[in-house]
Amino acid sequence: MSGGMSRRSFVKALAVSAVASSGVKSGLSQDRVASSGAPTEWSYTSGKQYSDPFNQVDVDAMITQPSGQEERVPAFWAGGSTWRVRYAPPAPGLYRIRSVCSDTRNRDLHDRASILNVEPYAGENSHYKHGVLKVAEDKRHFQHADGTPFFWLGDTWWMALCKRLPWPDGFETLAADRVQKGFTIVQIVAGLYPDMEPFDDRGANEAGFAWEPDFSRINPAYFDMADVRMQHLADHGLAACVVGFWGYFIPRMGIAKVKQHWRYLIARWGSYPVVWCLAGEGTMPYYLSKTKEQDAETQKHGLTELARFVRATDPHHHPITIHPSSSARLCVDDPSVLDFDMLQTGHSDRQSVPNTIETLNRSLAAAPRMPVLIGEVCYEGIMEASRQEVQRFMFWSALLGGAGGHTYGANGIWQVNTRQQPYGLSPHGHSWGGPAWDIASQLPGSGQLGLAKNLLTRYSWWKLEPHPEMVEPRWSNADYWQPYAGQIPGEAFIVFSPSGMKPITIKNLEASSYRAFFFNPSDGTEVQIGNVSPDSNSAWKAPEFPIFRDWVVVLERKA
Q1: CA–CA separation, 432 and 284 (whole Å)
Q2: At a CB cut-off of 8 Å and minimum separation 6, what does 546 contact?
Q3: What backbone phi and psi angles, to 5 degrees, belong to 461?
């Protein structure tokens, strides 16, 4: 590096510069000023030296809000003798802060008092403006703290915090593409990755690995570089579904270490627009494990304990789930420790449709009631299949079936293939293949799901209810490749017809007049049908589809 700067110092300088430029207050005086909803930050530095500060010392901030409510916010070890607190104050007013250290004799870290003066947020970032993400009262979708509905259209970037997706050019390019297409959240793993051994060079970022070898302590420099990426997502309106690690790290690290990992993630990123995914492939043992049944049980019990720990540690109470092999509900001893169910339903192109529909319906009918969404299904292009028509089908059948959102994935992005170096072999000895990430980002399915979201958001999409009985023909267990129907009460009826070969009839309509049109889910164009009304049997038969292909039929209720 120029000027004699070490690589570690250079990486840290990049991170601090990016955080400061994005509006996070860094290194402020004792009395601080912040904006409601947006992250603010301050530090505590110890004059006392510790041989192993990460493992020997915990620091928290006890924060009293203007309402009088008190919350405990964990601080993160920033390296050396410094701990930092990152906090998103929920409302304007005066906040009183007192530090609490596990070493109560350290007066640099313990019982330090300060004041935070919070002004109203004046920007347009939806997450800072409307507050943290929550499960809505209907237990079927998501919303911000102030009640503004949040449309979950997710993308899968498992390994995007590694250096194979370069910062800033690569990461910013992919983020801009997804924002333009209408995505709202990305799934991203916090350094402990799938499909590789720990400390495989493919998992490093510019500052190395998330942990030191043998998991002795966290590497703050790794997270400095991860921070600039996370901040970029937040500043551009993208929430993050933070996946702590792949589930098989639980028997490898032990429950005490994975709790340390999660405490650190909460402290680093809990003030950003996030939801928590405790682990990927929650109860799946390591690919080459010789004790798979034992590992699966260890992971299940560990995830249940971890869910309770995260809920108790996170002052913002971000929604909690698990990325599963089937259903998050099955990854824990008690499903009530979760806030929403995430599903994984297969990568076998059209052959994955029956399991996808059945798994979704089982979860929607299960107790306790919670939002359900697909977190992984049929990555576009995987195994040279699952192309855009399958992506459209999975989205529309899920949303019209009652899902609280949908997550897309493209083969080539999740593992961050590059032109120069494809990802290569997984531990099981095979390769998932796929194009480079920048080529995969332009696969047509991603844009087409954005068009689908744009159509739904014309209406009160969060009120969408599944009504398969309202369309004829309709899907059934005998034929899943038939129409799916839903209703937004008082606004619209929406039908997805996967084949478009037979005209459909929409039944049980209210006596009213409607504007009808066909929506082409590939390019977003509309074919106007005109003003229509139900017949004496409260039904309306649509005209022939313009061509044989999948279509969306919309009956928009006229005022």
Answers
A1: 18
A2: 518, 527
A3: -60, -30
In angstroms, the CA 519 to CA 251 distance is 50
Dist CA 432 CA 411 (whole Å): 8
Q: Which helix (H) or strand (E) holds 175?
A: helix 169-181
pLDDT along the chain (559 residues), means of 10: 38 38 38 89 98 98 97 98 98 97 98 97 94 97 98 98 97 98 98 96 97 96 98 97 98 98 98 98 97 98 98 97 98 98 98 98 98 98 97 98 98 96 93 96 98 98 98 96 97 94 93 95 98 96 96 94
| Torsion on CA atoms 443, 448, 451, 452, rounded to nearest 10 | -140
Rounded to whole angstroms, the Cα distance separating 133 from 314 reads 13
- 394, 377 Cβ separation under 8 angstroms: yes
Q: For 496, list phi and psi in degrees, rounded to 5.
A: -105, 120
Q: Which residues contact 131 (CB under 8 A, 6 or more apart)?
A: 37, 90, 144, 145, 146
Domains of the chain by range and CATH? 25-122 (2.60.40.10), 134-457 (3.20.20.80), 467-557 (2.60.40)
Q: Which H or E run contains 87?
A: strand 82-87
Is cis: bond before 149, omega within 30 of 0?
Answer: no
Q: Coil, strand or helix: which one is 371?
A: coil
Closest CA to 363 of 386, 384, 342: 342
Bridge pairing between strands 484-488 and 465-466: antiparallel
pTM higher than 0.90 for the full model? yes
User: Is there a contact between 238 and 186 (Cβ–Cβ < 8 Å)?
Assistant: yes
The candidate with the shortest Cα–Cα distance to 44, out of 98, 100, 109, is: 109
Q: Hey, what are 540's tokens?
A: 């309306």
